[in-house]
Amino acid sequence: MNKYKATILVIEDEENICNFISTTLSAQNYRVVKAYTGVEGLSIITSHCPDMVLLDLGLPDMDGLEIIRQVRTWSPMPILVISARTQETEKVEALDLGADDYITKPFGTSELLARIRTAERHTNRLSSGVHSVYHAKDLVIDFTKHLIQVRGQETHLTQVEFKIVSLLAKNSGKVMTYDSIISSIWGPYADNNNRILRVNMANIRRKLEVNPAEPEYIMTEIGIGYRMIEDEG
Ligand code: CA
Question: What pTM value is reported for the model?
């Protein structure tokens, strides 16, 4: 029997934040390894093979984005970005380089644990194959039958709308950037202005949400992308 749930590497130069994360995760029976610099972090990634990395982007010796770039050349391990920076472009860049999600400082215990659980679930889902059904609250999506039921009623989506919803549902709980959605749906050479995506999202919300202005299934992360609520299994 494994004593720990998973080994998580925290690369963060601010000692109090590093300690907060470490205490929180240790209490939940995760094994925590700490690194205060990028070089140290990269060396621990190769020597300890952690199950997940929590990565601060603003490190003293190197840009956290460079760590994502390097790790992604050889490993799909979940990388959760922790950042105090408010620049949305940097978060988008981190996500497009292959980070799984981000958490903005200051954050609390429950938010941290929720993000970690989502990343873990997503990894398990990838290794166990894609589920054929998504279910959350009053929404059920059957990917193979191309059916969507909301509040007990079948809802008709266009092909593009269905593709967008399926993509978000298969990545539920995680934020998806506008560009990654656009290139998945319309191809890598699609015009990367968000207008067509926003139009489709407005239609999707009219069909799925009770109040499209206050969505409960697909949230907007301003300047970054969309996040669909976690699959309840
Ligand atoms: Ca920092």
Answer: 0.82
